[in-house]
Amino acid sequence: MKITSAEFIISAVRPDQYPEDALPEIALAGRSNVGKSSLINRMILRKNLARTSSQPGKTQQLNYYKINEQIYFVDFPGYGYAKVSKTEREAWGRMIETFLKVREELKLVLLIVDIRHAPSKDDCLMYDWLKHYEIPICIVVTKADKIPKSKWDKQIKLVKETLQADPTDKVIMFSSELGLGREQLWDYILTETSD
Q1: Which tens digit of pLDDT belongs to each residue from 2-14?
Q2: DSSP 8-state class, residue 16
Q3: How far apart are CA 177 and CA 50, in angstroms?
Q4: Which CATH number fits domain 6-193: 2.60.40.10, 3.30.505.50, 3.40.50.300, 2.40.30.60?
Q5: How far is it, in rounded angstroms, from Cα 37 to Cα 29?
Q6: Where are the alpha helices (DSSP H) in 49-195?
Q7: What is the pLDDT of residues 128-179, one digit of tens each?
């Protein structure tokens, strides 16, 4: 995919703030520090449009990025981070659930998990939620550069088993460092968003 334009649009917390131009939306969900911002930056070949942070739990809204005037990436707050108060966590949960239930423009959720660990309880909950709302999912397994290639298959199998993933769900291995999986992921996104 050739990127001609990419811009940050808005940090939304309520449905009345979501963009109204009806472009297809791809949401990114995953625990804090799993590499969502790095993935966005690699996908659009920009160093820091999506701000990465060493401080987990930094994203607290739905961050909208418009790509090529034809599609949005919507970056969800990372979940499962202990230093955020219970009240804040519940507010995020409600915000994300509302988005998943009402957003007709949402075409696909990238569920992002770290290849080095089995998916967390929160990852499994998010997966089950998406299945419940019948939202198409692509499981993106990031940080592939952090483990030897010889372990990739074993870790992918662990991810699928832990999530009890539907065999029809697409699984893509990704590395923001190496650019691994970028073309494959774009191909899949474009297939899912072309009506």
Answers
A1: 999 999 999 998 8
A2: G
A3: 15
A4: 3.40.50.300
A5: 11
A6: 86-102, 121-132, 152-163, 182-193
A7: 989 988 999 999 999 999 999 999 999 999 999 999 999 999 999 999 999 9
- Quick one: how far is CA 152 from the chain centroid? 20
- Burial 66-79, CB ≥16 within 10 A → b, else e: bbeeebbbbbbbbb
pLDDT in tens, 101-142: 889 999 999 999 999 999 999 999 999 989 988 999 999 999
Taking the C-alpha atoms of residue 83 and residue 149, their distance in angstroms, rounded to an integer, is 34
- One-letter identity of residue 4: T
pTM of the model: 0.91
Backbone angles phi, psi at 26, to 5 degrees: -120, 115
Residues 73-100: pLDDT tens digits? 999 888 876 566 777 777 777 888 888 8
Main-chain dihedrals φ then ψ at residue 93, nearest 5 degrees: -55, -45
Taking alpha carbons only, the member of 190, 185, 182 closest to residue 171 is: 185
Domain spans of the chain, in order of start: 6-193
